[in-house]
Design a protein that fits this description.
Shape: globular
Number of strands: 18
Mean pLDDT: 93
Bound molecules: NADP nicotinamide-adenine-dinucleotide phosphate
Structural class: alpha/beta
Largest sheet: 10 strands, mixed
Distance between the termini: 46 Å
Number of helices: 17
Helix content: 25-40%
């Protein structure tokens, strides 16, 4: 059964379809209901992504977009709101014909998540659209809502029969992170969701997996011959995975205070990047094969201790971002002045497999750091012998392959080269591939890719419940340790984190990259 499904999905697999422009994947008759449509994520990302898909001709003729929210809006009010979001943020140029076609299928249902009659009305609207719009009973429900409402909405969908497809129809649920705040709550959430929607109908969004550059990790590793033979502990000294942001947290207290950097970024984005970099080659990119390989490597992954030395945690204080003075976290609007929430988190993970034993994976993320960058750096061992005088190579560091996820998407290789002149001095040089220079096509936004994949039932780029739970199993011991430690260390805004983060690597004779 799984093999048959794999074979079907393989025909439209992520890597093949990303390059084969002659075979665009167009969603079949279907509609999308967005819960939390008045929120930040919907306005900035989801609605523009839906328009971009429409404008690329990737949505079916009778596509329906239904918003559910507490505002007392008419269809026209909602249409106006969607149009504003699209004009402000869509990637493709606004086109009146595309808009008019999309607007025909736009509807709004007003209500709160505990309002049974509102959900009954929603069920009536969807049934009506199945007849008038041709959505054929195929609906995806996007839960762009605070996590405490996931269970509520799922139960309401169940109660009104909206979670259960008729013959030849489908119903899917798309869930935004965070998937729990620890292993126990993630299990509880998965249980609630899976009692209503079978696992194959659950699409958990980790928008990092929708990024072209993240999918390029698979292309780089498995479509080339030159990398894979050296992608192991014989050649690689250590791996650094960094997601650094220069912005602060003003205005995001409601979501962030009490959550912190590790839960917000390491549990999902960074551990997913580790899985893609470290997994074995899947036999295909079908959902089953790809996700089994990721899960296998995650099962071999564990945190390295002792955590006093192998992890670091920090909170930004006032400083300069560029040349602009900024306040510390505790003075940000909405934050508890005694907040112990970390805005910087770093940890050391190890992978107990033949390929990776002895290679530390250092993960770090933070707000108000030196610059915005996400990258994976594979740092190689030194050659066993170098026939140079020491002063000829003292400016040479370890070779590295750096996969830049954002911005300046691309791949960089650092290696030694002779400095021109009569001597034999060797120094680091960079060979740099930039997406923006190599390709004329613009990358689609991650949310475009992921919404389309959910409509197409292509689940390769969505983490499974098992992956989510395993990620928490990896992180929970570190979070429990930190919970006993009181306040995080401090670091000045605009720097690269607390001194303890540097110590983490220095004790191993290594240093963090300064991207
Ligand atoms: N923003 C991002 O970039 C981002 C990134 C990754 C993940 N996420 C996740 O995505 C989800 C949405 O994020 P967001 O930034 O859009 O949040 P947000 O701006 O706070 O919006 C939350 C949405 O939920 C609605 N809502 C809240 N309580 C409700 C209730 N009782 N009944 C009906 N509607 C209710 C709000 O409606 P009202 O307008 O009526 O209050 C609003 O539409 C969250 O789970 C978040 O963790 C967001």
């Amino acid at each position: 059964m799984i093999e048959e499904r794999d074979a079907q999905v393989q025909r439209g697999n992520p890597l093949r379809s990303a390059v084969d422009k002659r075979l665009p994947r167009i969603a079949g008759p279907s509609g999308l209901v967005i819960f939390g449509v008045t929120g930040d994520l919907a306005r900035k990302k989801l609605l523009p992504a839906v328009y971009d898909l429409a404008s690329r001709g990737l949505l079916p003729a009778g596509f329906a977009l239904v918003g559910f929210g507490r505002r007392d809006w008419s269809k026209q009010d909602f249409e106006h709101y969607v149009r504003e979001a699209v004009e402000a943020r869509s990637r493709t140029k606004f086109n009146t014909n595309v808009w008019n076609r999309l607007a025909e299928g736009i509807h709004f249902v007003s209500g709160a998540f505990d309002d049974d009659t509102a959900f009954d009305r929603l069920a009536t609207v969807l049934a009506e659209m199945d007849r008038s719009q041709g959505t054929a009973g195929n609906w995806a429900y996007y839960l762009s809502v605070p996590p405490e409402f996931f269970a509520n909405v799922v139960h309401q969908l169940d109660r009104c029969g909206m979670a259960h497809p008729g013959d030849g129809q489908w119903r899917r649920v798309i869930i935004e992170k965070p998937f729990g705040h620890d292993l126990a709550s993630a299990k509880e959430l998965n249980k609630v969701v899976n009692t209503v929607f079978p696992e194959h109908a659950v699409f958990r969004i980790d928008h990092y997996l929708g990024k072209e550059t993240v999918q390029n990790i698979m292309a780089l590793r498995f479509s080339n011959q030159m990398f894979e033979p050296i992608w192991n502990s014989h050649y690689i000294d250590h791996v650094q995975i960094t997601m650094a942001e220069d912005i602060g947290l003003g205005g995001r207290a409601g979501y962030y205070d009490g959550i912190g950097a590790a839960r917000d970024v390491i549990q999902n984005h960074l551990i997913q990047l580790l899985a893609l970099v470290a997994m074995e080659e899947p036999t295909s990119f079908s959902p089953h094969q790809l996700r089994s390989e990721k899960l296998k490597v995650l099962r071999a992954t564990s945190p390295t201790g002792p955590f006093e030395e192998t992890t670091a945690r920090g909170q930004y204080t006032a400083g300069l971002q560029g040349s602009v003075p900024v306040v510390g976290l505790r003075d940000e609007e909405g934050f508890d002045p005694d907040s112990e929430t970390e805005t910087f988190a770093a940890c050391t993970l190890e992978i107990n497999s033949r390929r990776w034993a002895g290679v530390p994976f250092y993960l770090r993320t933070g707000k108000r750091l030196g610059r915005r960058v996400t990258e994976i750096a594979l740092v190689f061992k030194r050659p066993p012998y170098q026939p140079f005088y020491p002063d000829q190579t003292n400016l040479l560091t370890n070779n590295a392959v750096v996969i830049r996820i954002q911005p300046d998407e691309g791949v960089l290789m650092r290696f030694g080269s002779k400095v021109p002149g009569v001597g034999l001095e060797v120094r680091d040089v960079n060979m740099d591939f930039a997406y923006s220079e190599a390709f004329t096509e613009q990358s689609p936004e991650a949310y475009e890719r992921l919404i389309l994949d959910a409509l197409l039932d292509e689940s390769s780029l969505f983490p499974t419940n098992a992956e989510v739970e395993r990620s928490w199993e990896i992180l929970d011991p570190i979070l429990n340790f930190w919970a006993q430690q009181g306040r995080p260390d401090e670091y000045e805004a605009g720097t690269w984190g607390p001194a303890s983060a540097n110590h983490m690597l220095e004790k191993d004779g290594r240093v963090w990259r300064r991207p």
